[in-house]
Structure formats: structure tokens, C-alpha cells
Write a structure and sequence with these properties.
The complex is a heterodimer. In chain A, strands 1-2 form a two-stranded antiparallel sheet. Chain A has helices at residues 3-28, 41-70, 79-98, 103-127, 132-146, 150-164; strands spanning 32-33, 36-37. In chain A, helix 2 (41-70) crosses helix 4. Chain A is an all-alpha fold. Chain A has a single domain (3-164), classed as Arp2/3 complex 21 kDa subunit ARPC3, CATH 1.10.1760. Chain B is an alpha+beta fold. Among the domains of chain B are: 2-50; 67-110; 180-260, Rod shape-determining protein MreC, domain 2 (Thrombin, subunit H, Beta Barrel). Chain B has four helices and twelve strands, in the order αααβββββββαβββββ. Chain B starts with a helix and ends with a strand. Classes of the chains: A mainly alpha, B alpha+beta. Chains A and B meet through helix 1, strand 2, helix 2, helix 3 and helix 5 of A and helix 1 and helix 2 of B.
Chain lengths: 168, 279
Amino acid sequence: MPKRYLVFKWAVYGLATLALVFLSSLLLGRLTIGGVHFLLLPMFVGVVASYEGSLASPIFALAFGFLCDLGGAGPLPGFYTFALTLAALIAALLAENLFSPGFLCSLVSTAVCYLICGLGRCLVHVSDGAALPTVLLLAAREFLISLPLLLAVFPLYRWLHRKTTVDY
Amino acid sequence: MKRFFTRHGIIILSAAAAVAVILALVSFFSSNTDLLTNIVNTVSSPFRSAASSVSGWFEGQLRYREEFDALKEENQALREQIAQMEEDLRQAQEDSQENERLRQLLNLQEQERSFTYRIAKVTQQDSSNWSAVLTLGVGADQEVEIGDCVVTETHQLVGVITDVGSNWSSCTTLIDTDFSIGAAIFRTGDAGLAQGDFNQMQEGLLHLNYLDADAAPQVGDLVVTSGVGGYYPDQLVIGRVQEVMTDDDGLAQYAVLAPAADLDALQQVFIITDFTIVE
């Protein structure tokens, strides 16, 4: 596969993801449901992992997580760099071995990413003195209110995947 | 799958772990914001500002309709409060004059409270469920420093600056779990430590911990910064006691505080970049 094509493809993915981050902060930044904000970062990684396989998607997740950490999104420096890479790796392996690409595959992959990021968050906050049931409940609520947005995110990445995938 | 983990997977995960460790080390050892973080936040600052303006406008439109009746009621209550405060002010002016005469009589130094402010626009409200941090549109270029207090126009404490870039800064608000400041109950002078608490952050509340055993906080008591140590100014309004609780072991008590500042509706704040207080 030509290097130029790969650069173009991942530049498109990167720009689309940054645009989604900007749009979500514009439209959802101050919106809460039951006092809980939406969290879409694991969803972006989860959907990409379901389409792009276990080699490319963890590298994408690493770069995206690194940017998230530099932007101050994580509870600890380097949190998203590691958590999103691990999540993308596991999600992509599951997607490759158990499902064919599609909505169900993206749903499972996204759930795995939320699970790993959520557990990581819980670990950090419990070690900081927060009550385990409180953080687990918050992580679950965050996942449940964010999940319906997969209906909007999934078609975009599916479209990108179709437009940027060429068989060689 | 096993083969993958022995090859690519391990390599990528190791790379991620290495990057994470480097980020952690840089953050731990540098007292200021590192270069890459500064660049990312400086570049994203205009986008944050634009997003904040647009979402703030929509929120304002929605709130205007929703809160019209509530504002009418609040207006009436405020009129009554102003009448009461005018009476208190007359009394305070008399007390102040008496205080001045007594100071002259005792040859004491004149009291002085002066603050240097920097106005800052809130460019991003924290949209995370796990922290309560505001991003402000001013930074080191405007002489903002880590540790500066952030207040509203009526000296209600919003938080403390914890991260500074060239044209942005992060304000950890008083409900965040990383927030901690010396505080005192205004009525009694009892000192404690106002701290964010994760279990109550979602409700927008914080704790007043480490109260003296003989302290007697009451619901409705005003809590202000104590200014002990001179690092932060005193008399900044933190909030009011909402509930008085006892620790699980039953030995110590703490108060649950409702912040005076409306942290969700902030669009502009004031950073105290310098202060002089002579009591």
C-alpha cells in the first residue's frame, strides 16, 4: 500500500476526529443529562478500532490519546495515551476475531473502550479516596448517556472508511 | 491473536506506556507547563473560545425563557435584602468611623486591602464528569501565575490557578477533588480546610474539614478564606454551610458547603494577581 495513500487516509481520520471533538464541545460541552456530561473520546477510538484493525487503530489511539493528555483531558498525565491504546488494541482484536465490521461490531468495540477507560478512571479516583460505588455508578451513567451518540458517530466513520479504503 | 500480542501489540503498548511515563515524569518534574502542552492549548485556545461563545449564547437564550419567573421572585427577595443591607451599612459606617478614631487614639497602622485584578473570559467550562476545571483566556503573557485566586466580581471564590500557558490558564474550581484552601466560619472564626470531595462534586458541593473539636458550625453560616500563611487573601467568600456531618468514626465533624459562586454560569472571572492586606 503506497505510503502517500496511508498518510492521506490517516490525515483524513485525524481531521475528522478533531472536527468531532470540536463539534461535541460546541454542542454538548455544557449539556448534561441527570448532571452527567457526555464523554465521546472512547467512542471515537472504539469505532475506528472496529474498522481499521489491530495494527493501525492502536497507533491512531496512541496519537489521539497523546493529544488528549496534552489538552489536559485525563486524570493523570499519560492516562489516555495508555488507556486508549490498550482499549483500541483489545477492541480491534475482538472486532477482527468475533465480528464482521458493522454497527454491532462498533457497539461492542465502543463498549470495550468505555470499559477500559472507565475502569482506569475508577482506579485513579478510588486510590485518591473516592468511594468505589460512586465512581462505578458515574462511569456507568457516563457510558449509558453517551452510547446513543454512536448512532451519529458510527455513520461518519463508516463513510470515511469506505471513502478512504482502496484494495491493492 | 497470541502471535499478534507477541509482536505488534506488545510493541505498540510498550510505546504507549513509554509515552505515558514520559508525560508523567515531565509533569512531575516541571513546575511550569511543558512546551508541548502549552503549544496544544495555545493552538486550541481560539477554538475553545469560539465554542464557549456559541454554546454560552444558546445557553443564555434557553435560560432566559426558563428562568424569567424565578428572576422575578429573586428580584423581589433582593429588594428586601438591599433594604436590610442599607440599614447594616449605616451601622457599619458608624462602626468604621469609631474604629478609625480608636486606631488613631492607639496609634495603630491604617488598615489596607488592595487587590490587583486581571479580567478573564471563561473559554471552556469543564465538560468532564471527573473534575471541575475552567479554562481561562489569559495566561503568563498577562502575568497570571499558578496559585492566583480566581473570584467573581463580588469576591466569591471560584478557584485557584493550577496551570498556566502563554495565553491560557486552568482554574481548579473549589468543588474539584484537587482543591484545598484554608477557610474560616465568618460568624465564629473557627478555622478548617475547604476541600473538594469527589462524592459531592456532582452535586456542586464541597467540604469544610479539620474543624476544631469545639467548633459549632450552623446551617447557613458564611465560610470565607482564612488567609492563614498569607499565601491567599482572606475574606474571600467560599460559600455557606448546608449541612453539618460527623465522620464515620464519630470523632470529628465536618460541614458540607454550597459555593457562593454559580460555577455553571460563569462567563467572566477576575484573577487576583497581587494583593496587599494590612490588618
